[in-house]
Amino acid sequence: MAVLIIDETKEMGTIEPEIYGHFSEHLGRCIYEGIYVGEESDIPNRKGMRTDVVEALKEIGVPLLRWPGGCFADEYHWKDGIGKKSERKKMVNTNWGGVTEDNSFGTHEFMELCDQLGCKTYINGNLGSGTVREMSEWIEYMTNPGGSPMSELRKENGREKPYKVDYFGVGNENWGCGGNMTPEYYANEYRRYQTFIRQYDGENPIKKICCGANSEDYYWTEEVMEGCFKHTDPQSHGFMDLLSLHYYTLPNGWLPKVSATEFDEELWNKTLWAAYHIEELIIKHGAIMDKFDPNKKIGMSIDEWGTWFLVEPGTNPGFLYQQNTMRDALVAGISLNIFNKHCDRVKLACIAQMVNVLQAVILTEGNKMIKTPTWYVFKMFRDHQGAELLDSRLINEGSISVDDQHCLPKISESVSIKDGVIMITLNNLSMNETEEIIIQTIKNKKYDVVECNILRADAPQDINTFSEPEKVISSGYSGYKFQGNDIVLSLPGASVVQLKIK
Ligand code: AHR
Predict the structure, then answer these.
(1) Which residue has the CA at smallest separation from atom 6 of ligand 1?
(2) Quick one: residue 2, left, alpha or beta (phi over 0 = left, psi -120 to 50 = alpha)?
């Protein structure tokens, strides 16, 4: 039987709320339809933002939102998205389906959305096809209090006070869609562009995010760090606050994508192994960062993560619309537990993407909306945000064989403490087998159970649909008992459990 040992005397660091961040791109039906319907829409909205979607997102406590891309960011020219909507310039979204982008959702609309969500803002700038001047003027437009050409333009467009930009990304995937650059070239560009991100609000400086690697591309990390910190002391000033990492869970690697809903146990295991692999990436990219930044002042920003499957049959392949099952829920549970455990380096993460794209937490169809199994995981994990990570480890948790070379632990866990309440989040990775787990604490204290919830489905392939929106939902769980001061918990196969004790 597996044993989880929690050392409640050892706090390992703060789990930054931003680890629970989201990503929204001008891609398919993420922004338009999914979030923004315009003020004239019949769908209930506040200043154009769907109220049903905003309310559902508030329930999971979205701490941060990244926008406008993704690949779209390096083709986005922010001045096209301000001013009178009818006069905004249109463009073709060449990355995503070649559709016409009318720019009706721009800087002011994004800031309004973040205001409604009560979240921090992460804007991704255009380094691939934009100029230093353009990037620098965007910062001036958003954050200069007044008296400059761009701040006056913002005021003319109806916003007197400056906006708060919490994070700014200097390009996206510049090794690929953001310009196909070499790391050496990008490092120089990063040095130049970041210089002109002026800090108009000295008390709340904008945190700068440098474009990091794709999955195992350690060469990129090494060369970018090397290039950026040649003759520059990483500890001395706000030159680079975070370095990004993008990693998608692709069960077949870069081979053809597989269905989001049709899978067997073999594919289930492969997918969860691919999700687990992110821990190795964090450790290895982190070790390279350590060479340049041993005090871990630069955070890792995993600002694109999640599953990437085949699009739903009959939908535009460029729109990346996929369904969501318990397999996605487990990928989310595994990833979030790993991010928590590496909170000394991982300071920010964004699931891709928030609505209607890839591993979305919300799906919409006309005026209908559903919460996916992944939404429930974010809800169950919500109280890890801002909590202190506790030292915890599993003994005897057993493993699942994936193929000749790989195996996977049966259980994943992380534990945190906030306001005296210890929260344990557990995933049973086995598709069918129930696991019993004994939970012990170093203080050997008798704790009371404050709350226990489970997410599971009748079948791992079950989904929420617009006709049956609540097939897979979380519910209260009583599958535990006390054994002395220990708690013995039964974890059904393919389930996510949250247990709070005090
Ligand atoms: O999330 C979809 C795309 O995946 C993003 O636009 C890009 O950054 C990544 O390749």
Answers:
(1) 70
(2) beta
28 and 149 co-located in one domain: yes
Q: Which atom of ligand 1 is nearest to the CA of 353?
A: 1
Domain count, the chain: 2
Question: What is the C-alpha to C-alpha distance for residues 190 and 102, in angstroms, rounded to an integer?
Answer: 30
* Nearest CA residue ID for atom 9, ligand 1: 70
Nearest CA to ligand 1 atom 7: 70
- Indicate the residue type of 133: R
Residue 297: its pLDDT value, please? 93
Mean of the pLDDT values across residues 39-49?
Answer: 98
As given in the structure block, the two tokens for residue 483 are 């054994």
333 and 471 inside one domain: no
Does residue 238 register a pLDDT over 90? Answer: no
Q: Are residues 314 and 379 in the same domain?
A: yes
pLDDT exceeds cutoff 80 at 237: no
DSSP 312: P
Residues 89, 225 share a domain: yes
Q: Residue 430 is part of which domain span? A: 390-501
**Nearest by Cα to 439 from 392, 398, 377, 403:** 392
Cβ of 74 below 6 Å from ligand 1: no
| Residue 255 sits in the same domain as residue 397 | no
Q: Which of 460, 466, 257 is nearest to 363 (CA)?
A: 466
Q: How many residues does the chain have?
A: 502
Atom 2 of ligand 1: nearest residue by CA position:
70
Q: What is the pLDDT of residue 61?
A: 98
Q: Tell me the three state secondary structure of residue 402.
A: coil
Do 304 and 394 reside in the same domain of the chain?
no
Would you state the pLDDT for residue 235? Answer: 59
SS (H, E, C) 415-462: EEEECCEEEEEEEECCCCCCEEEEEEECCCCCCCEEEEEEECCCCCCC
Residues 48 and 178 both lie in one domain: yes
Q: Which two tokens stand for residue 12?
A: 């390992």
Mutate to test the pocket of ligand 1, among 25, 122, 172, 319 (most ligand atoms within 8 A of CB): 25
Question: Final residue of a domain: which of 385, 417, 445?
Answer: 385
CA separation for the pair 96, 99 (Å, rounded)? 7
pLDDT tens sequence across 318-356:
999 999 999 999 999 999 999 999 999 999 999 999 999
Residue 293 CB less than 6 A away from ligand 1: no
Among this protein's residues, is 173 annotated catalytic?
yes
Q: What is the pLDDT of residue 196?
A: 95
pLDDT tens for 442-501 read 999 999 999 999 999 999 999 999 999 999 999 999 999 999 999 999 999 999 999 999
